[in-house]
Amino acid sequence: MHRLLVLYPKPADPDHFRDYYVTKHIPLVMNWPGLLACRYSFDVAATKGEAPYFAVFEADFADAAAMAVARSSPQGQRVSADVVNYATGGVVVIDYPVQDSIG
What we know:
Elements: E1 2-8, H1 14-29, E2 37-41, E3 55-61, H2 64-72, H3 74-82, E4 92-97
Antiparallel strand pairs: 1-3, 1-4, 2-3
């Protein structure tokens, strides 16, 4: 499995971010081809001190090739272009293969 992780620093308008993200952005994400699962949270906490991120998003794909197809698809291009509509604090996007450590 391959995971896409998106970290969002605090936006200028947290209420707008939450509303737009849930009502407009996530529905776009749900149209990604090959998407196995996704999840997000606005309740980001740090073990010590203040968390450097306001929100987090994860998406799972069968492998890196499936994620690349999704991101380069017309749906993926719409998702990427939409980020400027809510993420005024910027965005950090990383991806990696997921290794099972239990079992």
